[in-house]
């Protein structure tokens, strides 16, 4: 059964909604493993993937706790682990720092940066202007129009020439 908050959208794409709440009373490691079991992954491999994902997001201490016992930062890290357990090529994340105290936000953004550096593309949304400091590219919606620089490799040739001239 697909969870409404973390879904595998297609081959290699995972959606992570940071309002993650595991089933009441269920340990986080079991919740992450259940996601894999539902996809037909053998129990031992499902548990191993769950542990690997928790270690990757530096939330292994959350494994034996329930969602009710997690703080804002831990909830986000566990939500990211739940999406990573599917080994996506693209991770779509909505408001990754919402509910996270100011000091912990840098850690979440650094985690996302490291996941991207390891080869998983990250597509995120935020309502805060500083929500994606350090991102490779930031686009904004303003009055129904997409604002920001098009990636050079996607731009028409004339735009690419202007881009090169502006840079150097």
Approximate shape: globular
Query: Would you identify the CATH architecture of the largest domain?
Result: 3-Layer(aba) Sandwich
CATH topology of the largest domain: Rossmann fold
Please, how many domains? 2
Q: Roughly what is the average pLDDT, rounded to an integer?
A: 79
Q: How many distinct helices?
A: 5
Q: Which parts are unreliable, with pLDDT below 50 for 5 consecutive residues or more?
A: 1-8, 154-164
Share in β-strands? 15-25%
Name the CATH homologous superfamily of the largest domain.
P-loop containing nucleotide triphosphate hydrolases
Secondary structural class: alpha/beta
**In this structure, how is the largest beta sheet organized?**
4 strands, mixed
The total count of strands amounts to 6
SSE string, helix = H, strand = E? EEHHHEHEEEH
What is the fold's blueprint, element by element?
Layout: E1 6-10, E2 13-17, H1 28-38, H2 43-56, H3 72-84, E3 90-94, H4 102-117, E4 121-125, E5 140-142, E6 145-147, H5 157-167
Parallel strand pairs: 2-3, 3-4
Antiparallel strand pairs: 1-2, 5-6
What does this structure look like?
With 168 residues, the chain is α/β, with parallel strands linked by helices. The chain has five helices and six strands. It folds into two domains: 131 residues, P-loop containing nucleotide triphosphate hydrolases (Rossmann fold, 3-Layer(aba) Sandwich), CATH 3.40.50.300; 28 residues, no CATH class. Helices cover 39% and strands 15% of the residues. The strands form two sheets. It has a four-stranded mixed β-sheet, covered by helices on one side. Helix 1 packs across helix 2 and helix 2 crosses helix 3. The longest helix has 16 residues. The N terminus is likely disordered.
């Amino acid at each position: 059964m697909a969870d409404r908050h973390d879904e595998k959208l297609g081959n290699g794409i995972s959606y992570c909604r940071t309002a993650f709440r595991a089933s009441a009373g269920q340990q986080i490691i079991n919740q992450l493993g259940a996601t894999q079991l539902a996809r037909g992954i053998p129990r031992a491999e499902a548990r191993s993937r769950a542990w690997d994902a928790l270690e990757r997001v530096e939330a292994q201490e959350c494994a034996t706790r329930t969602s009710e016992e997690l703080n804002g930062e831990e909830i986000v890290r566990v939500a990211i682990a739940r999406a990573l357990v599917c080994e996506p090529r693209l991770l779509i994340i909505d408001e990754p720092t919402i509910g996270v105290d100011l000091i912990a936000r840098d850690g979440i953004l650094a985690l996302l940066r490291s996941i991207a550096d390891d080869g998983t593309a990250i597509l995120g949304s935020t309502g805060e202007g500083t929500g994606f400091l350090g991102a490779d590219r930031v686009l904004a919606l303003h009055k129904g129009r997409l604002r920001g620089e098009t990636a050079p490799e996607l731009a028409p040739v004339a735009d690419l020439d202007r881009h090169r001239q502006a840079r150097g």
